Amino acid sequence: MRQDHLITATQLSRGDIEAVLDRARAIAADPTAYADRHAGTVLALCFFEPSTRTRMSFDAAAKRLGIDTIDMGDVSASSVSKGESLADTVRVIEGYSDALVLRHPSEGAAQMAAEFVDVPVVNAGDGAGQHPSQTLLDLYTIQETHGLDDLTIGVMGDLKYGRTVHSLATALTNFDARQHFISPESLGLPRSVRFDLHETGAQIREHDDLGAVLPELDVLYVTRIQQERFPDENEYHRVAGEYQIDASVLEAAADDLTVMHPLPRVDEIAPDVDDTDHARYFEQAHNGIPVRMALLDSLLESTHE
After folding, report:
1. Entry pTM
2. Is 109 helix (H, G, I), strand (E, B) or coil?
3. What is the rounded CA–CA span in Å between residue 153 and residue 167?
4. What does the buried/exposed string (b/e) look like for 61-73 if buried means 16 or more CB atoms within 10 Å of the residue's CB?
5. Which of 67, 69, 121, 254 meets the CB 3.0–4.6 Å disulfide criterion with 5?
6. DSSP letters of 35-50?
7. Cβ(131)–Cβ(167) under 8 Å?
8. pLDDT digit string (tens) for 73-85?
9. What is the DSSP letter of 258?
């Protein structure tokens, strides 16, 4: 992977994706072979929004590579609360680290940050924009269960504000994938994302009902309705809970359907799905370790060449 930063899934070619996933598979098979590979390196975790899986898996992935981590901590306890700009914050932290992982509520924040520093920046989510490292672990999970070509995937829930959706849909254009998007009209794909997908010739269809397409899916990717993104709370309450699945809904699905979710979930996937053969979302989260190890290894390797 020949990139200085990972900001958006549009950067990723099929070759880039396959290289990271192949390396992740090698790491999963023998993690000890990569221990201390980057000893003496420091990774800065800069999270301006809450995170459990992304923050902890990057932390764990780094440490398994021998990388030390420093954490900016709670934004309210940092100089950001004094009015420091993002540009100044990352320029300061660059002096303490060899790479940055950044999550920020503003779309485009990671791209802006990358313009002010000379160390690799990984976008760990920029508002309703992109979340490319999540997409890499999503693709790894899909590849393990169905492969990435001749794939029929349904993406259901919040497609408007769902950054994981935007990144995944973009990355899948590198493969032979038929993409079905299921949501209420008010939470459909943003016009810009839809335009970009059409420009690549992607095979996409949009629906407001899961039942019409469920039997033909290989993968169902469910997303949370993101209350924190809604400018109008009344709009959120109009759609909250509208798209939910439980074990009875999945009786109409193919036996080998894989159900995924970037987590956290609220009520969009009932607990009774957890005990079915379809559920892969906890495995999906665990895949963040080898995939993020592979990503960090690739980015840091490139900076040393």
Report:
1. 0.93
2. helix
3. 14
4. bbebbebebeebe
5. 121
6. TTTTTT-EEEEEESS-
7. yes
8. 887 767 777 788 9
9. E
Cβ proximity of 29 and 86 under 8 Å: no
Helices (H), the chain: 14-29, 53-64, 86-94, 109-114, 132-145, 163-171, 191-199, 233-239, 281-286, 288-304
Q: How many CB atoms lie within 10 A of CB 9?
A: 27
pLDDT digits (tens, 9 = 90+) for 129-153: 899 999 999 999 999 999 999 999 9
pLDDT at 224: 85
> Which CATH superfamily does the domain covering 9-130+288-304 fall into?
Aspartate/ornithine carbamoyltransferase (3.40.50.1370)
Coil, helix or strand at residue 59: helix
Question: Where does the pLDDT of residue 227 fall: very low under 50, low under 70, confident under 90, or very high at 90 and above?
Answer: low
- Name the token pair of 129: 């924009």
- Residue with token string 């990972």: 6
Q: Residue ranges of the domains in the chain?
A: 9-130+288-304, 132-285
- SS3 (DSSP) at 266: coil
Give the Cα separation of 190 and 175 in Å (integer): 22
Q: Listing from the earlier edge strand, what are the strands of the sheet with 177-182?
A: 203-207, 177-182, 151-156, 219-222, 258-260
The pair phi, psi for residue 269, each rounded to 5°, is -125, 120
Residue 301: predicted pLDDT: 86
Q: What percent of the chain is helix, strand and coil (3-state, nearest 5)?
A: 45, 15, 40
The neighbouring-strand residues paired with 71 are: 45
